[in-house]
Amino acid sequence: MNAQKLSKRLETVAKFVPTGAIVADIGSDHAYLPCYLIHKGIASYVVAGEVVKGPFESAVGQVQKEGLSEKVKVRLANGLAAVEKEDHVDTVTIAGMGGPLIVSILEKHPEKLQGITRLILQPNIHAKVIREWALAHNWAILDEEILEEDDKIYEILVLQRSHMELTELEILVGPKLMQRKSATFIKKWTREKENWQRVLQSIEGADQTPEIDEKRAELETLIHLVEGVL
Length: 230
Prior knowledge:
230 residues, alpha/beta, Rossmann fold, 2 domains, 7-stranded mixed sheet, 9 helices, 7 strands, 23% strand
């Protein structure tokens, strides 16, 4: 992977960036995505935010190597603190982290989201918490995608400002993904259901405690929900 040829995962993130967007890529690592967005004429300007010094320095070097210092600004900052009002950012990408970490980044500097019209979020795990956050903060799901790369399954959520309502099942598996029921979607949730069934089986012989009863009820609910969509 490099600034000219992204991984399948990041290429999918890039396809949801509106043409001409001013983007903040949070947790930019080597700044491959920002450089790609400029090279392909997708974004007009990108802020690449990185909180760790090593990746920040790699990103600076990559941007210089690509000759994009005028179009990609690399900043050492924690999450959305990389975004400044003068940037006029309208699109935020956050990829390659867990869902809870992505939510914590969005919640830490809510004022930085004021001018943002699109969020493109790629959690490695726990996409459910992002849907819960979106519901609570008046963001709606514009689109979703699920893909497999290197034996890992990833979900990508594209959010825009709007009200939405989701069922418990839609929060868990994703309303757009549920409608399409791709082979990757079926594979992911079949695997999850089998894992829950194994855990449920393992606690069948355990002592009856409130915690065990609660866990059993939670697993049975999840299994029942997912069986309704497979």
